[in-house]
């Protein structure tokens, strides 16, 4: 016999509008503990229950207790049988992270900044594989050069789900996903602004305003806006951005909420190509003239350009019928225009005479997505169920066109030790390559979270259909149609002492948007399978320790063509095995710490020579990180705090044949902050903060690929004055 699960904090269904006075009283009683709380779940709205943490809302500090990334339901992390890491907005600000990749650099199993100082793509690798990014559980599609990059100031949290997740997300990398949770309107007024300056002439600022529009709190608003203009460690390079993200929430009843969202972001200067000579020549290995300076710019300042313009509109809707059924619909349309023209090292020559080629490419990426969900909470005897039924749909177009110097002709050599710019023989590059790909993807999924006593089981199955149609510049049309069934099964046991061991099996299926530039043929979907065992320990709400051991295999992997930086190819199979450890704790009011360690055994189990049987490039076997913050409360140092971090990136191989290694690097970060309220009530809300990454300015090579090597990011210091009211 089916019976509903009683949710103590859920408000009874309201069939008609209450008076303004009763509405006001009910909603005020559900007020969050601080003005920064947003409308994340209906369970806390209009009730007398004390608000609890939500998977979609703000977290005070660095330790999150709930997440929806692993289940698409608001679930306790300690009861979710999967490895999930949550980086809160408080942690992002405390560490001075300027991108999504920087926000997750202390997370285990993660490899960031593979392009070093080249920040065009903000890529994150998880368990050895390039991770897909999602915004509010809807995919941020990417093409060859068109990457949808979200400013971290617009986010409430960044969540990393380790391992395959196709049961919920369909088109997802087997290594895992990065789910970005956007800031949403708050029940109480919240205001924040900041200005920053620092290394490389940084000028940066932002504002975050939120709160109710009317006295009944039926309409809520939020608007975040930010921008920056900053140079780089590389000569002649700047980054510029303007971003604005408004949102509006309508709460006609306590059981219904709709949040309308919009984003516009323009990066008129969005990056450069920083890959140098292959084989570590002049970077990993010295030459008779020394090593290539990290400030060396290999292109042409008056020719090179990379720009990006991104916009999106959509909504997040939820309605609760009763204590059993809740339905949701998340929808978004996005538009990305990216243009790149570059002179780049062609991989030939010496540091004193690097030969270069040129190319340009324009890409337009359009996508529409909708995810429909129905959640049912009920019990069958002693078993409590949270069932999720869903159907999602995505469609879009990826259109590219471009040209390059004929046959990779040398458009002008350059001396890395004495660069002279202004070459005059860059040839005319008409459109010689391009393709238009239309894609449609449909997925049906069902998941059941079952609780029995201390046991938690997670079962799910999904079927995907993926169709695409690719038309080349010459008019040749290539259709593609794929489908797959993905499964997940997991079991967890929660002891009374806060220990929760678990075991999980899960799969992935990933249709790939885009085509191989040289052949104009569509990419095949990747598939992946993973077994994982892990353990979580949560002695209190401010401490979470996790460990996971996994075995993961992926087929049909896409990678950059080692012989052509404009092309990507697919290889056979990669196996990833490893151990991930993570600890986060707010030990007391003064001290906060986090630490992580990763061991990853990565191997090309099926690939063309010379990669066969060797470790994929750029992925270390060992990496570790630790960070701590100590803030004084009381005494002469009241309001003052300092933080420090260390990141270890193990050695990696620089080529497919594993003939040479890129040395390991140990990097130190540090920070100082001061709450000016300690000086007097007139300074309440003001905070001064200084962050330094790579504090000792270590010069290191981030990664080497067959086509060349990238230097890592050198020291960067950022000073920020923040005001919250």
Number of helices: 4
Largest β sheet strand count, sense and barrel closure? 22 strands, antiparallel, barrel
Helix content: under 10%
Instruction: Identify the overall geometry.
Output: globular
Structural class: mainly beta
Please explain how this structure is put together.
By secondary structure, the protein is mainly β. β25 and β26 form a beta hairpin. The N and C termini lie far apart (52 Å). The N terminus is likely disordered. It has a 22-stranded antiparallel β-barrel. The longest helix has 10 residues.
Keywords:
5-stranded mixed beta sheet; disordered N terminus; 725 residues; 4 helices; mainly beta; globular; 3% helix
Summarize the topology.
Elements: E1 2-4, H1 20-29, E2 66-67, E3 75-76, E4 84-88, H2 89-95, H3 100-103, E5 110-112, E6 124-126, E7 129-130, E8 132-135, E9 138-139, E10 155-162, H4 166-169, E11 176-182, E12 190-198, E13 202-212, E14 219-231, E15 238-253, E16 256-269, E17 305-320, E18 325-350, E19 353-380, E20 383-404, E21 433-452, E22 455-472, E23 477-493, E24 499-510, E25 526-540, E26 543-560, E27 568-586, E28 591-606, E29 622-631, E30 640-649, E31 652-653, E32 661-662, E33 665-675, E34 686-693, E35 701-705, E36 708-711, E37 716-724
Parallel strand pairs: 8-11
Antiparallel strand pairs: 1-19, 2-3, 4-10, 5-6, 6-7, 8-9, 10-11, 12-13, 12-37, 13-14, 14-15, 15-16, 16-17, 17-18, 18-19, 19-20, 20-21, 21-22, 22-23, 23-24, 24-25, 25-26, 26-27, 27-28, 28-29, 29-30, 30-33, 31-32, 33-34, 34-37, 35-36
